[in-house]
């Protein structure tokens, strides 16, 4: 069954119950709780999701609800990081993640999606995006800019990676006791954690833990466009740990468009995605009609998976 993230209307519909009704009217019976929800929206959602026969949310993002003092429009920005070298900040990020995990238990959500943080380096994404937008993706200069940006990351990544390992050690222990899965997700930007190799490192470190991999199709495609990693390699390499897939399209370098409204080849993508994992539309853009069309596209491709 296809789910949808509350990302799509959390900022437009302040009432949690009405928010859920809007998503049901689009044909979705199952949701994922995004980090854009306020405490009030979450409290309004709780009685709706307790109704007999209602399927619990498939997953919840840290930090949900939004952090105190943070507006919904700032929810995509990571204010506190599990990768922070400041131990007080890192412990606060752990504490807030545990609060999200406790909410997951209360609302019978099986999986908590983790934002692991980033490497504290100057963002050199413009080195790649400028050349991409000028149509120079295939030239040697583009490759040199990718190398330049990633080399700057490497100079600082080990300390932040160690901080993430310490954070995951605590969170995996909590997840085991709470009978939850925690899922690490591929991110869109080169300086964010995990990059491709770090996913493997974390699973080697915590093999047998409740940790799983959550694949974001749009993030992988964006990394490929910017010369960082072939998008199919994430699924090819980490399918053993895969628990869910986030679905959204790209228009040039802009993510979170409804599937079928951008540049991605969805027939090919669904051939790579296992049929038995959770699938979630994670869209920010698109009017009601476009989102409905995207649902129909994804459901038709899912039906083809089931039949094959």
Question: Characteristics of this structure?
Answer:
308 residues, TIM Barrel, alpha/beta, single chain, eight-stranded parallel beta sheet, 11 helices
Short description:
By secondary structure, the protein is α/β, with parallel strands linked by helices.
How would you describe what is shown here?
The protein contains 11 helices and 10 strands. It is of the alpha/beta class and about 300 residues long. The protein has one domain (about 1-120, about 160-305): TIM Barrel, CATH 3.20.20.150. The strands form 2 sheets. The protein has an 8-stranded parallel β-sheet with strand order 2-1-10-7-6-5-4-3. A two-stranded antiparallel ribbon has the order 8-9. Helix 3 (about 85-105) packs parallel to helix 6 (about 155-180), helix 4 runs antiparallel to helix 5 and helix 10 packs across helix 11. The model has no long low-confidence stretch (mean pLDDT about 95).
Helix percentage range: 40-55%
**What is the assigned CATH homologous superfamily?**
Divalent-metal-dependent TIM barrel enzymes
Strand order of the largest sheet: 2-1-10-7-6-5-4-3
Global structural class? alpha/beta
Q: Mean pLDDT across all residues, rounded?
A: 94
Beta-strand content bin: 5-15%
The total tally of domains equals 1
Q: What is CATH's topology name?
A: TIM Barrel
Q: Architecture, according to CATH?
A: Alpha-Beta Barrel
Structural shape = globular
Question: What is the helix tally?
Answer: 11
CATH level 1 class label: Alpha Beta
Number of strands: 10
Largest sheet properties: 8 strands, parallel
The ordered string of helix (H) and strand (E) elements is EHEHEHEHHHEHEHHEEEHEH
First-last Cα distance: 17 Å
Radius of gyration from the alpha-carbon trace, in angstroms: 19 Å
């Amino acid at each position: 069954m296809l789910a949808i993230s509350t990302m799509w209307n959390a900022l437009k519909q302040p009432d949690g119950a009405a928010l859920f009704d809007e998503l049901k009217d689009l044909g979705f019976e199952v949701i994922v709780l995004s980090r854009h929800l306020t405490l009030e929206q979450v409290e309004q959602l709780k009685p709706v999701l307790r109704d007999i026969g209602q399927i619990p949310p498939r997953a919840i993002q840290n930090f949900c609800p939004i952090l105190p003092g943070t507006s919904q429009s700032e929810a995509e920005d990571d204010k506190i990081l599990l990768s922070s070298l400041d131990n007080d900040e890192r412990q606060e990020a752990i504490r807030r993640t545990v609060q999200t995990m406790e909410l997951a238990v209360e609302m019978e959500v099986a999986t908590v999606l983790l934002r692991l943080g980033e490497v504290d380096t100057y963002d050199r994404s413009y080195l790649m995006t400028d050349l991409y937008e000028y149509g120079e993706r295939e030239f040697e200069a583009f490759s040199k800019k990718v190398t330049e940006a990633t080399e700057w990351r490497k100079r600082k990544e080990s300390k932040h990676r160690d901080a993430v390992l310490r954070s995951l050690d605590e969170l995996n222990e909590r997840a085991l006791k709470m009978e939850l899965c925690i899922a690490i997700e591929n991110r869109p930007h080169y300086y964010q954690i995990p990059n491709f190799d770090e996913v493997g490192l974390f699973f080697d470190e915590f093999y047998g833990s409740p940790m799983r991999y959550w694949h974001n199709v749009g993030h992988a495609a964006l990394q490929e466009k910017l010369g960082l990693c072939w998008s199919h390699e994430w699924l090819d390499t980490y399918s053993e740990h895969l628990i869910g897939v986030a679905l959204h399209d790209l228009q040039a370098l802009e993510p979170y468009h409804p599937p079928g409204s951008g540049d991605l080849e969805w027939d090919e993508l669904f051939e790579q995605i296992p049929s038995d994992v959770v699938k979630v539309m994670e869209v920010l853009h698109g009017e009601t009609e476009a989102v409905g069309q995207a649902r129909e596209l994804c459901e038709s491709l899912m039906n083809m998976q089931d039949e094959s």
